[in-house]
């Protein structure tokens, strides 16, 4: 997979610099953060602000030097009080910028001890406590799940269409060949998921998490399966239904607007693409029990799941990062062991196959971000335009850095009933 793409944020999305000098408190916070950044080993941050220029870390490290321009001294307060989340919030507010946001975030991900020092300051304890309460209030009960999904997916199809390919597939693509387009790579991924469960024309398939219908339509049109697909997004239910009808697949695809916990029936195969992250850690056993109950004996469950390294899973559960706070409320990232252990304890499902393809997600995110910033019109047309664009810019860059550093991955897993 190619390395990250250097993308400049459009001029229209950049906030005007704050020319005020930092207060004495901000200077003190700046000194503390600068001291931490000096310990970077994998590269260096070239910091520029109203007080001058500093090179922090090791410019000869494998990631080289990355620039950080501070456009408002409010950044120091946000970092000290908010840590990881504060950095993202400050980017959205226009307090800092960089020619290589992904590179900067990769450096902090690789030298994770420095990031944890910044994020774990006693100054941030009250804010982190409030974040945990907020995340707990976003628990994925039936009502909570509907609210959480609505807040991310029902914001307007014109925004998603601006960076997604024509299939409207909002998950990691799979490049069988480097020269493939994003659309070709997404279609390759959809077919791989169908092949993951050996889908055939004799099968009744259940999909949990319809998206805009691309996987259900692929399963019916190319593999001949009879498909039931469900979503709790009002918007995606309406659009997926329209797309299924337009493709002439109404006789083979049934679209439901129903919580997975309320599904009934038995199916030969079950697919779920990047939906497991939305169930929440507390509900993982419930989700897997329901999947097993919906499968006929001998049936197969195929998952595409974003995963975190087993060594970091427990600590991540107790942390509310930028993604949980501002992108996917109520979400969590499971580890492969967390999934298989829950399946072992609570179901008769057994793991038959697992493959990680994290670098493909890094490329997917880089292409989405490139498309987003090349033609940001629908985002800038919103009342909150420039800040909205910076929020999605940061979200894509933040996730790309995590995948490039293999802190997180994405897996295809096949589990089967006895």
Care to describe what's here?
There is one protein chain. By secondary structure, the chain is α/β, with parallel strands linked by helices. It folds into two domains: about 10-135, no CATH class; about 140-415, Vaccinia Virus protein VP39 (Rossmann fold, 3-Layer(aba) Sandwich). The protein contains 17 helices and eleven strands. The strands form two sheets. The chain has a seven-stranded mixed sheet with strand order 7-6-5-8-9-11-10, sandwiched between helices. A hairpin with a 2-residue loop joins β1 and β2 (about 50-55). It starts with about 25 loop residues before the first helix and ends with a strand.
């Amino acid at each position: 997979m190619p390395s990250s793409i250097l993308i400049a944020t459009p001029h229209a999305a950049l906030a005007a610099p704050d020319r005020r000098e930092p207060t004495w408190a901000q200077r003190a916070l700046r000194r503390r953060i600068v001291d931490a950044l000096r310990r970077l080993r994998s590269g260096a941050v070239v910091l520029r602000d109203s007080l001058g220029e500093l090179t922090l870390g090791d410019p000869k490290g494998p990631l080289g030097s990355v620039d950080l321009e501070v456009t408002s001294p409010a950044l120091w307060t946000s970092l000290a009080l908010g840590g990881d989340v504060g950095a993202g919030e400050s980017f959205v507010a226009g307090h800092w910028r960089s020619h290589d946001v992904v590179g900067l975030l990769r450096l902090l991900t690789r030298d994770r001890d420095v990031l944890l020092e910044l994020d774990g300051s006693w100054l941030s304890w009250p804010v982190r406590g409030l974040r945990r309460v907020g995340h707990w209030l976003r628990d994925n009960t039936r009502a909570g799940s509907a609210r959480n999904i609505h807040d991310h997916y029902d914001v307007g199809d014109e925004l998603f269409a601006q960076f997604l390919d024509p299939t409207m597939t909002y998950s990691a693509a799979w490049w069988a060949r480097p020269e493939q387009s994003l659309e070709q790579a997404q279609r390759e991924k959809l077919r791989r998921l169908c092949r993951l469960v050996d889908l055939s024309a004799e099968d009744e398939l259940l999909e949990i998490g319809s998206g805009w219908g691309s996987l259900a339509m692929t399963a019916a049109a190319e593999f001949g399966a009879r498909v039931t697909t469900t979503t709790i997004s009002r918007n995606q239910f309406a659009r997926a239904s329209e797309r299924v009808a337009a493709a002439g697949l109404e006789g083979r695809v049934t679209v439901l607007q129903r919580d997975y916990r309320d599904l009934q029936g038995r199916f030969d195969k079950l697919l779920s693409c990047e939906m497991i992250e939305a169930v929440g850690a507390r509900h993982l056993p419930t989700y897997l029990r329901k999947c097993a109950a919906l499968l006929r004996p001998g049936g197969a469950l195929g998952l595409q799941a974003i995963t975190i390294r087993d060594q970091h899973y427990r600590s991540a559960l107790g942390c509310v990062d930028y993604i949980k706070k501002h992108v996917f409320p109520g979400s969590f990232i499971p580890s492969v062991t967390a999934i298989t252990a829950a399946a072992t304890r609570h179901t008769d499902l057994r793991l038959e196959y697992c493959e990680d393809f994290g670098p493909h997600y890094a490329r997917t995110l880089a292409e989405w971000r490139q498309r987003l910033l090349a033609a940001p019109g629908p985002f800038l047309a919103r009342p909150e335009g420039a800040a909205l664009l910076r929020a999605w810019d940061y979200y894509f860059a933040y996730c790309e850095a995590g995948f490039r550093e293999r802190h997180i991955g994405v897996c295809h897993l096949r589990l089967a009933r006895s």
